[in-house]
Amino acid sequence: MNKAYGFLRVAAVSPRVALSDPETNASRIIDLSRRIYAEQTPSVLVFPELSVTGYSCGDLFGQHLLLDGAERALERILRETAELPALIAVGVPVPYAGRLFNCAALLRGGELLGLVPKTYLPNAAEFQEIRWFESAAALGDSLAEVCFAGQHCLLGTAQLFRVGDALVGVEICQDLWVPVPPCTRAALAGAQVILNLSASNETVVKHSFRRQLVSATSARLNAAYVYASCGYGESTQDLVWGGSSLIYECGTLLAESPRFASDSTWITADIDIEKLDITRQKATNFKDIRKENRVYQVMDGGPAADTDFEAGLLRPLDPHPFVPADPQELSARCREILSIQVTGLATRLEHVGCKTAVIGISGGLDSTLALLVAVLAADRLKWERKRIIGVTMPGFGTTGRTKGNADALMEGLGISRKEVSIVPAVTGHLKDLGHPLEEHDATYENAQARERTQILMDLAGQEGGLVVGTGDLSELAMGWCTFNGDHMAMYGVNAGVPKTLVQALVRHAAEEAFPELKAVLLDIVDTPISPELTPAAADGTILQVTEDLIGPYELHDFFLYHFFRWGYAPGKLLFLASKAFEGRYGREVLQKWLDVFLKRFFAQQYKRSCLPDGPKLGSVSLSPRGDWRMPSDASAALWRKQLEEA
pLDDT (tens digit, 9 = 90+) per residue, 30-84? Predict the structure, then answer.
């Protein structure tokens, strides 16, 4: 059995329709089901509304010959797909008690699991469904026992279908377009996946609205939404059918079919059921509303298919989840983040009544971003930029490159500059401790970080100012900061910004906000990340490279995002990282750095338990007053053991 990692593969199919020819449509549904399953082993296949007959049959739905043919065709589909271990949803007209219902038939292993009728029948403009069909509202919340296609099953909307660990709800086309669609009640009853069997024609701009509607519904319900619509072969007497199929998860598009194809089309995607469960678990309002919901009958659709997700994962997977790949989206994101940071700092400076803002400037990424934010905040407050004091504090490992960039940056921004060497004070301090200068251990490094913080704090007191912190989210996650050293400030503007995003923000600032400083800003981005606490090489090259010591920040940001947002176990983190960074990092390397991440994340919680104030910027925040409350004594043993087993 292949590892599922919490995923469920689904397919939305738009077959070429033979209008009013159930036998031909049955053949195509059977052939496509077999073909798609053989190629991609989905656990769920969804066909369009009335796919057994075609949607646009009009008054032919009043002909018993067509209805009888549709029932026989469904019997055949049941019989000839019995060997497929997948839930299959097809659209079929179902007569019951003198009424005709537009239904989704749910099949698995030759068994008809249930019939779900359409509730909201469109009856305006080009649609006249009330002419032929009855609404599911005629049945109320009850489930009717029926015999159809040679099998006994239930007919009604209060049904969910279990596939492995997933619960599947069903609605039909127009059901989605109403103020309170049936999928809302199904999701509140536990359905993580909603299937929509649709027949949505194409008009100008309708597709854009359709996409927005499916996206927003999946986001609102914390669900996956699989939408399959009819296409080629439907009547073009007055309308054109494009065969639009969509798969969304929590507002994110996973797959979309080409429209206006002249043959059958299908799309497949891997839905993350585990992600949906944890998202709902965290959504307190979702749980509050659930109390008001009606009871659904859950039909057992069997285990999920034995899909080989290791062979290929069918969903977008961004190796840099904090940094949008699209340049326009990235630019908009950077502008918004800078606005949040600037507003936060400006508000704090004004509230405290500061005369100045004090920042330690190293020539590295984090202090550069903090300084740019401080300058923009000063401009907003209509301060003279000289009210910002940038302090360089060269130590044992400071290089000419970083010192030069720090000086050039401060000069170009027009702020006040101050330089205080920490070498004499740290040398004396280590001598007092009896610590050899040549012993470059944690004591040697931390003494420098704490001396720098002391200088900044005392200078801020002297000048009536506020110390602006520079440490970022990635460093907080890894505990890569000195407790009561660079760990401490009076306001931490970068506390919500992961390292990969810090780089993007500085690049953005070089292009848009401070183009006159583009050369120095881009050189800062290109400088190896280092605390510069141990001596450099004889030629000035930085020897203490952070990513050599604790691992690449792009990996740690990837681990942090998925660990924090979705609560993924190490085995799944390792699997996702192997897909996201395929060809760049081997599995052993990923496992090594993931283990480092887990060890440090758990061991360094005590530093996060006493963070200074700072603005939340995105969906990941480690503030103990906000999104992350974890005991400092928590053990990583369970997580590291699972990683070892993975």
Answer: 999 999 999 999 999 999 999 999 998 999 999 999 999 999 999 999 999 999 9
Q: In sequence order, what are the beta bridge partners of 338?
A: none
Q: Which of 173, 230, 334, 481 is catalytic?
A: 173
Side by side, the strands of the sheet bearing 151-155 are 144-148, 151-155, 111-117, 99-108, 87-96, 44-46, 7-14, 265-272
Cβ-Cβ contacts under 8 Å for 129 (sequence gap 6 or more): 102, 118, 121, 122, 123, 174
Tell me the two tokens of residue 299. Answer: 């039909």
Is 2's pLDDT higher than 70? no
With H, G, I as helix, E, B as strand and everything else as coil, classify residue 167: strand
Mean pLDDT, range 144-165, rounded to an integer: 97
Q: Is 183 annotated as catalytic?
A: no
Q: Which residues contact 428 (CB under 8 A, 6 or more apart)?
A: none
> With the C-alpha atoms ordered 100, 103, 106, 107, is the resulting torsion angle positive or negative?
positive
Tokens of 27: 């053949």
For 203, phi then psi, to 5°, come to: -135, 170
CA distance 544 to 527: 12
- Whether 355 sits among the annotated catalytic residues: the reply is no
Q: How far apart are CA 102 and CA 110, in angstroms?
A: 21
pLDDT for residue 291 is more than 70: no
DSSP H helical ranges for 311-422: 327-352, 365-380, 400-413
Structure tokens at 636: 């990583």
Domain 7-299 has CATH 3.60.110.10: yes
**H or E segment and range at residue 229:** strand 224-229
Integer Cα distance of 63 and 52 in angstroms: 15
How many CA atoms lie within 13 Å of 16's alpha carbon, on the beta-carbon side?
7
Whole-angstrom distance, CA of residue 543 vs CA of residue 530: 8
* C-alpha gyration radius of the chain: 31
Q: What are the start and end residues of each CATH 3.40.50.620 domain in the chain?
A: 327-645
Tell me what pLDDT residue 1 has.
Answer: 38
Residue 308: pLDDT above 60?
A: yes
- Give the containing element (helix H, strand E) for 264: none
Query: Are 238 and 126 spatial neighbours (Cβ–Cβ below 8 Å)?
Result: yes
Query: 320: exposed, middle or buried (C-beta count within 10 Å: 0-12, 13-18, 19+)?
Result: middle
What DSSP element (H or E) covers 225?
strand 224-229
Domain with CATH 3.60.110.10 in the chain: 7-299
Strands 7-14 and 265-272: antiparallel
Sheet with strand 491-492: strands edge to edge = 416-419, 388-392, 356-360, 465-469, 491-492
The one-character DSSP state at 192 is: S
3-state helix, strand and coil shares in percent for the chain, rounded to the nearest 5? 45, 20, 40
DSSP-assigned letter for residue 437: T
Question: CA dist 34 to 28, 39, 549, Å?
Answer: 10, 9, 51
Q: Is the pTM of this model over 0.90?
A: yes
71, 103, 118, 250: the active-site residue: 118
CATH dotted code for 327-645: 3.40.50.620
- If one counts every other C-beta atom within 10 angstroms of the C-beta of residue 305, the result is 22
Residues belonging to the chain? 646
